[in-house]
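Closing statement on the zinc ion sub-project.
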Amino acid sequence: MAKLTFLGAAGCVTGSKYLVETAGSGAASKKLLVDCGLFQGANELKERNFKPLPVDPKTIDYAVLTHAHLDHTGWLPVLARDGYRGPIFANPATMELTEILLKDSAHLQEEDAERAKRKKYNHHEEARALYEPEDVDPVLKLLKPMPRSGGFDISPEFHVESFDAGHILGSSSLELAIREGAKKTVVVFSGDIGRYGQPILKEPTTPPSKADVLICESTYGDREHEDGDPEGLLAQIVNRVVKRGGSIVIPAFAIGRTQTFMYYLRRLEDQQRIPRIAVYVDSPMALSATDLYIKHKEDHDLEFAREESSDGKGDPLNVHEFHLTRTAEESKAINKVKTPCIIISASGMVSGGRVLHHLALRLPDAKNAIILAGFQAEGTRGRALREGAKTLNLFGETVPVCAEIVEMGQFSAHAGKSELLRWLSGLPTPPKQTYLTHGEPVAAQALQAAIRQKFAWKAAVARYLDTVSLGA
Ligand SMILES: [Zn+2]
């Protein structure tokens, strides 16, 4: 009987890795890895990235990706370095995004490790980079395309079908059919579920699967996002900060939220609801990512497709005064900008990356504002800011937090609690078992309670390294 092991995203929101194994021993058992993410956030989690998997990567036959975010792909270079040689299936948009994300990840890790060594402020043993740029190429050679929708045979044992997840470009929920002789077991992996009614991407679609087992994310299982029109709120913040002569820093990854912000800022400028001010997208990969958002039309919702074509000017992801910075020197030069501007820079959880130096400069000034739009994991500086920290530790120094901190859950790329329940209600039959992953314990438990109450399904919170049977 097939089984599944939770190698990550169990009890936390990062490190997504699910190992599916068919029955049998040795080579007779086929192994498929669904996602291969990096642990991010608290040091205790990050240390897991340096530990070998409990299964030898050489013995894993196949891998498949739900989407390109690093907490779903960022450990692939280690997997390949440790001996994995099988194909890594992903749709074309995910393949292209994964390439830019992994290259960027390798650079950021090197930069962070270098900085830690130089400044010696990190007492943490692992000041070495988890992997380097040359570890990324072997992964790219293993990436193989699979269709954006419809069914696809990975092997005689594994068949997958993808459904739009509406989370980032290329994001999918996967229906996995496992064949063992005459027996067929259906497992649905939600991947990360996006929000309904968001711009640019298509809506999340629940797989119409009679699932034996469901693996469902629970990032916001205990919370709803703030109500309100994101566009109007963003206009208010921009106008307020510009009026007092301040600047706005938005910690955000170059993929997904950056495009959503650009989309709304462009619309607000065109409608003359905000002044045209300089927007710095401080990320070497933002331009490539934005190009991919434009290129992969199969992901676009109807309104976005209309905006691209209707007025002929169609550049809905580009603000009028757009500055892209690629090099570290260009990034540092933004520090000299005194007039109101908007700086969008990674990482989204302020755990590393260039946003650190922007915050070190702009946090102490009450005229400025910081917009927190994404999920802020436990132990990250983003979480500390969200919870009202008065100071932040940056580059080994204590920086006072005087800037206005604005949380804008409306810009989240993750479904809130009721949206998760809406997605779940789309399944045609109750899964025989549901495991909740990709959520901090409180969130996963809250969703478990809500599922029991609303649907009376069996639901359990996944535990790290637990192996469960997929048999009915
Ligand atoms: Zn994601």
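The radius of gyration is 22 Å. With this model delivered, the sub-project is considered complete and its resources will be redirected to Aim 3.
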